[in-house]
């Protein structure tokens, strides 16, 4: 089965991991700092906290922001469930706002209408790798006296009006799952502008531990002494995975270029295929294309999905609107609440896109899709 996305691993990646395995530190060592520093090179210098997954990154970001009972988070339904679930697990309520018809990113007007005096965070999702409209969303967050969070699981390496993802919002979360634009196997990170929030994020990912002598309440207890001043969890990303991440970030510019080449080739060779709407790009956006998300028209998405899968082409649907999962339906969320997102979902289909995709495999995808729809 030709996958819709997969990792690209080379000998340098393998050597980086093997080097850690031969060394003294498997976790909490120098490779963690090296990876976080390399990542900050892609966020415009905004410091980063590495964690064990993109989901952990969201949990850490919400916790650092003080999200809890009584808080409200406004976000997009066109995302994986973790964007909302991590806030809800902290006790917050989630309000889903509709998306833009062309990009499936959070609609600033819809987000503005969804905010209230309880809104603590507005969370955008950079669908398929195209950054959301952070200029407009920043104003929405400011009016609500809320923090702006970017769920950038799809978009590391992207820019919006020449500003890199990671520097566009108060906090930004990344995912390094194998299908993403760079991988650590499993992993994630949070980029945080504010020094106080950054400190809270670092402590939350390590049980809330305090070791600095000037912050201890019992500094004379002994050299072994450490304290927990606020509760956290163990979300530390180990050195062995950070080494892979640093190596991968060294190829991120190539990954972006190769994905862009494949997207341009899809756009050219699918331009005359009937019943398919190709992805849009807004002025000011320079995406790191994570997904090649077409829209299959005339109610034929299920047919195309089934027939392409039967042909060994692993197309995917990204995503069911989050509130349509039974866990949300059981809480009273109802279908139809975000009609633009619903319409997008009914037509969306992700074609294979990853750096090692060959042109012959891409031709196979195109020819199969053309044969089904012609």
TrEMBL record:
Q: Which parts of the sequence carry N6-(pyridoxal phosphate)lysine?
A: 180
Q: Which domain of life is it from?
A: Bacteria
- Please give the InterPro entries that the UniProt record associates with this protein: DegT/StrS_aminotransferase, PyrdxlP-dep_Trfase, PyrdxlP-dep_Trfase_major, PyrdxlP-dep_Trfase_small
Name the UniProt key words of this record, in alphabetical order: Aminotransferase, Pyridoxal phosphate, Transferase
Query: Where's the active site on this chain?
Result: 180 (proton acceptor)
Cofactor(s) needed by this chain: pyridoxal 5'-phosphate
GO MF entries: pyridoxal phosphate binding; transaminase activity
- Which GO biological process annotations does it have? polysaccharide biosynthetic process
Per the similarity annotation, which family is this? Answer: Belongs to the DegT/DnrJ/EryC1 family.
- Name the UniProt record assigns to this protein: DegT/DnrJ/EryC1/StrS family aminotransferase
The species this protein was found in? Actinomadura barringtoniae
